[in-house]
């Protein structure tokens, strides 16, 4: 394929943060303003829905108990397996991660937005995603606020939320890997979050315009 027939290279942002930090909310705003948002959690749900592309392999690896009567993954049961046994987590990830990667790339190839946002909860934990994106954006939040938000959103118990948080990297580790940070702690009002996201969106649009016409442009960390 000649250089001129290569598809346009789009700026890619990896959006991450702990559970309840506000990833979905920020992703919704970026989509509203014209970014192409690809949420790996949404892809994972699609893959594990009734008839989903991952279900046959999951049932083969974990047995019929992994599948609910309607054919979808039994998420509560699976959560208990992966918490109790690191090898079960590794088996599940070995099935899901390559499929999520393939589907995310398909979606990215079809993207028409001014830039692409991959929403990846465990982006920092996965070297592959860190390599794949041009910039890592962290939604930063204090742990107490994360717990309060997730409790009111999902009804999960505090101990389950704490177990999920313990399996994610520490706040400082996430921040150290960030090119961009959006603070969304307990003191952040929705309008403040919107304004912070908008500032970065505008910077990324400028960067995206230069990325489309030249080699990947760089913007300093925390610019
Ligand atoms: P994540 O996708 O990172 O798990 P969400 O975007 O779903 O987090 O946010 C968790 C919950 O907290 C949602 O119900 C969301 O509407 C709410 N939320 C997020 N940020 C704020 C904020 N600044 N003020 C009030 N509620 C918020």
How would you portray this structure in words?
The protein has two domains: 9-35 and 115-212, 3-Layer(aba) Sandwich (Rossmann fold); 47-112, no CATH class. The longest helix has 24 residues, at 86-109. By secondary structure, it is α/β, with parallel strands linked by helices. It has a five-stranded parallel β-sheet, with helices on both faces. The protein is built from ten helices and five strands; from the N terminus they run βαβααααβαβαααβα. Mean pLDDT is 92; it is low at 1-5. The protein starts with 11 loop residues before the first strand and ends in a 10-residue tail after the last helix. The site of adenosine-5'-diphosphate has 14 residues, from helix 1, helix 7 and helix 10. Adenosine-5'-diphosphate (ADP) is lined by residues 17, 19-25, 149, 153, 184, 188, 190, 193.
Q: Indicate the CATH architecture of the largest domain.
A: 3-Layer(aba) Sandwich
CATH class of the largest domain: Alpha Beta
The dominant shape is globular
- For CATH, the homologous superfamily of the largest domain is named as P-loop containing nucleotide triphosphate hydrolases
In CATH terms, what is the fold-level topology of the largest domain? Answer: Rossmann fold
Q: What class, by secondary structure content? A: alpha/beta
What order do the helices and strands follow? EHEHHHHEHEHHHEH
What's the gyration radius in Å?
18 Å
Biggest beta-sheet profile: 5 strands, parallel
Helix content: 40-55%
